[in-house]
Design a protein that fits this description.
By secondary structure, the protein is an all-alpha fold. The protein has three helices and no strands.
């Protein structure tokens, strides 16, 4: 399975059929971002998906970027 297929599978597993709101303004960037995060980063190391999501929340909170969590 290539990175694009892996990223789509992982995104669907985590968020269902929702579409990121960034697709409305910059779909090309959102594709690049999604393929990197969900096609590569999520498959590195031995963390569970729950641990990865918790770390994501911590980083977003520390960076004061919680609006990034909004998924439509």
């Amino acid at each position: 399975m290539d990175r694009i297929e892996k990223s789509k599978e992982k995104y669907q597993e985590l968020f269902g059929e929702s579409v990121p709101s960034a697709y409305a303004t910059d779909p090309e960037f959102q594709d690049i971002l999604s393929r990197f995060i969900f096609g590569e980063v999520f498959y590195q190391g031995t963390l569970t998906d729950i641990q990865r999501e918790l770390l994501t929340l911590v980083v977003l909170r520390v960076n004061q970027t919680l609006p990034q969590l909004k998924v439509r």
